[in-house]
Amino acid sequence: MKKSILAIGLCFIATIGFAKDIKTVVVTTTPQMHCVNCVNRVKTNLIKVNGVEGITTSLVAQTVTIKYDADKISEEKLIKSFKDFKYEARKLKPGEKIVREKHECKEGNKVEYETE
User: Fold this and answer.
1) Mind listing the domains of the chain with CATH numbers?
2) For the whole prediction, is pTM greater than 0.70?
3) Alpha-carbon distance 45 to 82, whole Å?
4) Res 51: pLDDT
């Protein structure tokens, strides 16, 4: 009985020790994302950043939502990593809305201007 309790206690401690500190940050980019290629460029480069766990983008809202392991990368370093692929990022304030720019895609892609 004592061994069972000890084993359960050790498993519990190990689980706590291996828990990740997953956080989420929502940013907008400069230049803005205007087409699927823009979105793919952001996602392809961000997923390479150590600590990034997941990425969701919205052309309509002009947002990039990033889930990351705070034990591996800080929010500040994550935002600075956008410079590596020629973008700037800034954290959005709660409830902040981004005004989309009119843009002609340099790659000849259909520019997405649908509204939510």
Assistant:
1) 20-91 (3.30.70.100)
2) yes
3) 8
4) 96
